[in-house]
Structures are given as C-alpha cells and as structure tokens.
Amino acid sequence: MTRVVSLMAGARVGGAEAFFERLVGALHDAGVDQRVAIRAEPAREARLRARGLAPTSLAFGGPLDLATPWRLSRLFGAFDADVALAFMSRAAAKLPPKAWCARAPVYVGRLGGYYDLKYYRRCDRLIANTADIRDWIVARGWPAARVDYLPNFVDATPASPAPREGAERLILALGRLHPNKGFDVLIAALSEVPGATLWIAGEGPLDAALKAQAAPLGGRVRFLGWREDTAALIEACDVLVCPSRHEPLGNVVIEGWARAKPVVAAASQGPRALIEDGVTGLLAPVDDARALAAALRRALDERDLAATLAQAGHARYEAAFARDAVVAAYREFLDRAAKERA
C-alpha cells in the first residue's frame, strides 16, 4: 500500500486549507496509509484528530528554519513514506534535501494558483487543480509528463438551510475580504439589484473598508464573518456569486453547483474556465459592477433560467468534481508516483 505524508503550512482559514482538510480526510476514509504535517494551528489539529488523523505540528518558518525540513526527513524515514504531498509554496519550500533521507519519498507539489515555481525546485512532480494552471506550469519549462491536473471536490453533505431572516431575494458570497475577491464591485452592483439582500461570509484586511462602503445600503448587506456552516448558507441562498478579480480556480463555483444553485461570477481565470456562460452559470466582465448587477437580476428574476443553470451546473459537478471521482483520481496518481521511488 502506498504510504503518503501530506504537508500544509497555510493560514488559519482559507480555501486551500479547507480543501487540504477535506482531501486528507477523504484519503483516510478511503484507506490510504497517511500521515499529516501542518503548521501549528490548534483548531486544524483538533479537526484532523476528529477525522482519525494524528497531525505532526511543525514551525514551517522562514529561511532560517532548518528544524522543519530536518524533522520532516525524520518523519519520512520513520514512516517509510513513498510520497510526500506538499500543499502550496511554503510547505514545498520546506521539503528536505533528499540527501537527508535514507530513502527519500517522491516529492509532489500541489498548486492551487500561479505560484513562483522556485519554491517547488525539489519536487519530482506537480499537481495543478485547474487545466490552465497545468498549462502555465508546462509553459515555464516543466516536462508535461510530470504535471498532472487533479481537480478539487467540495463538501456536498446534506445540510438544512440557514434561516434567511426575512430576506426575500438572497445573494451569497464566500471568501476572504481581500482586493482579489472583488467584494467592492459586488457591493456596488447590489445598488442596481432591487429588493436583494447580500450575505458576505469571510474575514480579511478589507473588513472595515467594505463595511463602510456598504453602510449606505443599510440592512441589505450582512457581513457574517468566517463561517464553518457554508453548506447551510449555500442551501439558504437564491444565487451564489463569485465576483473575484483574480481567482485561479473558483472553488465557490463548484460549491454552488454541488448544491444545485445558480452561479454568477466575474470572468476571472478559474470561473471563466469552469463556467459555460448561459449554460452552467452567468459570467460578467471583471470589475464591471453594472454587468454583474445585470447578471444577478437575470438569475433572480428569470426563474426558468435560474433552474436551468442550477441543473446544468449540478450535472457538471457530478461528472467532474464529485468526491468519489476526485479521490479515486488522487489514489491512482499517488500509486503511480510511488512506483518512481528510488
């Protein structure tokens, strides 16, 4: 059986971090022999332990942190790991020199964005979570045979809708309150969507600025903070929106599809690659509040269109992004990679 060590050195919250937890939990459920190493984060440790995993917490610090790669080399050796799967740049950068390992695992870096490839110089293989990112990596000199596209899956566990608290037309947005996410454009668009209430679930550096922008709209915008019950929020909404300026994947699109909700998005990299405009969702130009408002009005006002978009999106999710299909693809990849171990 292939033995895998999965590494995550990300933030306390975030989309990539949430997918890491979903994936390692699903691989554990599927019987993969696995260890996990993470940057110290008590809440994440507790969630992983609840899934039956026993995480090793490491510093994953800056350039002077030599303890983390040394401890990883010890972990790889004690476990006799076949594959080390590093999520994002910080974890990949801390992979130890193979000379430190008695029999080194195959190093795999998993990218969910257009990251600086210098951090992956010790990797033998790379995984991209979109076809565009895979092509971008290959265009920068990586052998195509050593770059695989493996998509994300989302949590599709049945959930009861969150209380709508009187909202008749409810729009939901999820994500970090950061300029890349385009929530300022979304709030501007809401002024042209009569009678709609907007929920924004997330936290980040633009919290105060976005609340100030939304103040003239009164109770039509609610900031929910970071939420663990995103499934209930999605079940409650009429439309899920992704207004991002920069979005390598657009995990929120897949989350909307999984729960058969009509999706509206700005045409940044990920959503543009995922959505067939007018078929599986509606796209608006990036940074265009008026066009985004028009798309939201269509999704709210045209009931037949909304139902058709939701049905087609859900079919796309079932075909390409369902948990079992993605986990099977990861298992096949890990088994294949393990055969390359020296």
Which sequence of strands runs across the widest sheet? Answer: 3-2-1-4-5-6-7
Tell me the helix content: 25-40%
Cα shape? elongated
Q: How many helices in DSSP terms?
A: 13
H and E order? EHEHEHEHEEHEEHEHEHEHEHEHHH
Low-confidence regions: none
- Tally of strands: 13
End-to-end CA span:
16 Å
Largest sheet: 7 strands, parallel
Hey, roughly how much beta strand do the residues contain? 15-25%
Q: What's the rounded overall pLDDT mean?
A: 95
Describe the structure.
The two termini are 16 Å apart. The model has no long low-confidence stretch (mean pLDDT 95). This protein is elongated. α6 (183-190) crosses α11 and α9 (251-258) crosses α12. The chain has helices spanning 15-29, 42-50, 67-79, 88-93, 131-139, 183-190, 207-214, 230-236, 251-258, 269-274, 289-301, 303-320, 323-338, and strands at 3-8, 33-39, 56-58, 83-87, 106-111, 125-128, 147-149, 169-174, 196-201, 221-223, 239-242, 263-266, 282-284. By secondary structure, it is an alpha/beta fold. The chain has 13 helices and 13 strands.
